[in-house]
C-alpha cells in the first residue's frame, strides 16, 4: 500500500526540485547516475539534493552510502524483494557503498506499514533463524565483495531506556499520526499499540547510525524513510535522500507478490519452475517486470516493445525475460534447460526429472492414487481434475472417475506441470 496521506515534509525539498536539477549543468557521469537512479522508481526525493550528492561524490572520489533495510520476517526472499535489490546493485556498480541492513532489532517490534491491526512481534529465535538465509540469498543479486552487512541491534540495543526516551523526544505524536495506516486506524477506533509508534523512529535512527546518503524501500516504506531524513537533521547530519520502488504485482497481476497469496517466485526455486512461472504472467504485466527486474538497458527494452507492437510474438520477449531471471539465480545452462523442458511439456512430453515413488494397495481408486502421489491435495480435488480432463496416465486422458488403477509402473500427470512416475503394487 502506498502512503497516500500526509507525509513528513522532505527536509530541504521544494516543488522546483526537478527544474532545479535540470538547470544544473551535469557531467556525463552524474547524468548517467541520475538516470540509473530514476529507472523504474516511484519517487526520488529530493532530486536536487541527490544531484548535489552525486556531484560531490564525483568531485571528491568519496562513494555515497546507500542503505537498504530488510526485516527477516520470513526465511526466504522472492523476486518481488529483488526489485529494490536490483536498484542497489545498479548503484553499487557505479562505485557507491551498499549497506545491506538486517533489521534484527526492528523485527522484534513489527513493521506496521500497510496494516490495519497490530502485527505480533517475532521472537529472537525466529529472527535469527530467518536472518541466516537473508544475506546469502540477497548476495545472489548484490556483489558480496562490495556489500557492507550490518544488523541494527548493533546500535539499537545499547540505546537503553534513556536513549529511547531521548530519541522519542525528537519526533511528535501528531506527525506520527499523519501516517496513512495510523490515521485510518485512529479514525476507526482500531487499537494502535505504543510499540508500533516506535518502529518508524527506530528505522529512522538506523539512518543516523549509518550516516546514510540514500535509503531505498518500497512505496509502502515512504513514511519511514522520511522519518530518517527528519531524524538525521535533528542529529546535525546532512539528511538522506529517499528512493522508493513500486511494489511488484505477483503472478496473478493484481495483488503484490506475496507468499501468503501464493503468487510469488522464490529466488531459490528450481530453474524449471522459475522459468515456467515467469512465462505465465500476462503480456502487459511483462513490461513492468522488464523495467523492474531486467538488467537490460531501457533502450533495449523499448526496442523490444516496439518490435512486439509491430507484430513480433510477445512470447519471444517473455522467453527472454524468463531466461534472464532464471540465469541470474541459477545459470545460463540451467535457463536453456528450463526452456527446453517447458517446450517439451508444451508438446505433451514428459520432463526428464520427475518424482518417483512406490505405492501399495492396488487396485487403487484414481482419486486416492493422485492424492497418494502428492499431485492433488485431496481425493475430491483429484476427481474434479478427472472431470476436467486434467489427468493423464502414460499420456492417455483419464475420464472415468471410478477407475481402479491396476499394479504396474506408469507416469501420472495432473494439469500441465505436475508429474510423477508411480510404481503401484
TrEMBL record:
EC number: 6.1.1.1
GO molecular function: ligase activity
Residue ranges of the motif 'KMSKS' region: 256-260
Entry keyword annotation includes Nucleotide-binding: yes
Keyword Nucleotide-binding: yes
Catalytic activity: tRNA(Tyr) + L-tyrosine + ATP = L-tyrosyl-tRNA(Tyr) + AMP + diphosphate + H(+)
Top class in the EC scheme: ligase
Residue positions binding ATP: 259
Pfam family name, one: tRNA-synt_1b
Motif interval(s): 'HIGH' region: 72-81
Main location as per UniProt: cytoplasm
Localization of this protein: Cytoplasm
InterPro entries: aa-tRNA-synth_I_CS (IPR001412), aa-tRNA-synth_Ic (IPR002305), Rossmann-like_a/b/a_fold (IPR014729), S4_RNA-bd_sf (IPR036986), Tyr-tRNA-ligase (IPR002307), Tyr-tRNA-ligase_bac-type (IPR024088), Tyr-tRNA-ligase_bac_2 (IPR024108)
Keywords, ordered alphabetically: Aminoacyl-tRNA synthetase, ATP-binding, Cytoplasm, Ligase, Nucleotide-binding, Protein biosynthesis, RNA-binding
PROSITE patterns reported in the protein's UniProt record: AA_TRNA_LIGASE_I (PS00178), S4 (PS50889)
Domain of life: Bacteria
Subunit structure of this chain's protein: Homodimer.
Function statement: Catalyzes the attachment of tyrosine to tRNA(Tyr) in a two-step reaction: tyrosine is first activated by ATP to form Tyr-AMP and then transferred to the acceptor end of tRNA(Tyr).
UniProt similarity note: Belongs to the class-I aminoacyl-tRNA synthetase family. TyrS type 2 subfamily.
The name this protein goes by in its record: Tyrosine--tRNA ligase
Organism: Ideonella azotifigens
Amino acid at each position: 500500500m502506498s502512503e497516500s496521506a500526509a507525509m513528513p515534509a522532505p527536509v530541504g525539498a521544494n516543488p522546483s526540485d526537478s527544474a532545479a536539477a535540470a538547470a544544473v549543468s551535469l557531467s556525463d557521469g552524474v547524468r548517467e547516475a541520475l538516470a540509473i537512479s530514476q529507472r523504474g522508481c516511484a519517487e526520488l526525493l529530493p532530486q536536487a539534493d541527490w544531484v548535489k550528492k552525486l556531484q560531490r561524490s564525483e568531485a571528491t572520489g568519496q562513494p555515497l552510502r546507500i542503505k537498504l533495510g530488510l526485516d527477516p520476517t520470513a526465511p526466504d526472499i522472492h523476486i518481488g524483494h529483488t526489485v529494490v535489490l536490483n536498484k542497489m546493485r545498479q548503484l553499487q556498480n557505479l562505485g557507491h557503498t551498499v549497506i545491506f541492513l538486517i533489521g534484527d532489532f526492528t523485527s522484534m517490534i513489527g513493521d506496521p506499514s500497510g496494516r490495519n491491526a497490530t502485527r505480533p512481534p517475532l521472537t529472537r529465535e525466529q529472527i535469527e533463524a530467518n536472518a541466516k538465509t537473508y544475506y546469502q540469498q540477497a548476495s545472489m543479486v548484490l556483489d558480496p565483495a562490495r556489500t557492507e552487512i550490518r544488523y541494527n541491534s548493533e546500535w539499537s540495543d545499547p540505546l537503553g531506556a534513556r536513549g529511547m526516551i531521548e530519541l522519542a523526544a525528537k519526533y511528535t505524536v501528531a506527525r506520527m499520526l499523519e501516517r496513512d495506516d495510523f490515521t485510518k486506524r485512529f479514525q476507526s477506533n482500531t487499537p494502535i499499540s505504543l510499540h508500533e509508534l516506535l518502529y518508524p523512529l527506530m528505522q529512522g535512527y538506523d539512518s543516523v547510525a549509518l550516516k546514510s546518503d540514500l535509503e531505498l524501500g518500497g512505496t509502502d516504506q515512504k513514511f519511514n524513510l522520511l522519518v530518517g531524513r527528519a531524524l538525521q537533521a535533528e542529529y546535525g547530519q546532512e539528511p538522506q535522500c529517499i528512493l522508493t520502488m513500486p511494489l511488484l504485482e505477483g503472478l496473478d497481476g493484481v495483488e503484490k507478490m506475496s507468499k501468503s497469496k501464493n503468487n510469488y517466485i522464490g529466488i531459490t526455486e528450481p530453474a524449471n519452475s522459475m522459468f515456467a512461472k515467469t512465462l505465465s504472467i500476462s503480456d502487459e504485466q511483462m513490461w513492468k517486470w522488464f523495467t523492474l527486474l531486467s538488467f537490460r538497458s531501457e533502450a533495449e527494452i523499448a526496442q523490444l516493445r516496439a518490435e512486439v507492437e509491430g507484430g513480433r510474438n510477445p512470447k519471444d520477449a517473455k522467453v527472454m525475460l524468463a531466461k534472464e531471471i532464471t540465469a541470474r539465480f541459477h545459470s545460463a545452462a540451467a535457463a536453456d534447460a528450463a526452456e527446453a523442458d517447458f517446450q517439451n511439456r508444451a508438446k505433451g512430453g514428459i520432463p526428464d526429472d520427475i518424482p518417483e515413488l512406490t505405492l501399495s494397495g492396488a487396485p487403487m481408486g484414481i482419486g486416492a492414487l493422485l492424492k497418494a502421489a502428492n499431485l492433488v491435495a485431496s481425493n475430491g480435488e483429484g476427481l474434479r481434475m478427472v472431470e476436467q480432463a486434467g489427468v493423464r496416465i502414460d499420456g492417455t486422458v483419464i475420464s472415468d472417475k471410478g477407475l481402479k488403477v491396476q499394479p504396474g509402473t506408469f507416469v501420472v500427470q495432473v494439469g500441465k506441470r505436475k508429474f510423477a512416475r508411480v510404481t503401484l503394487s
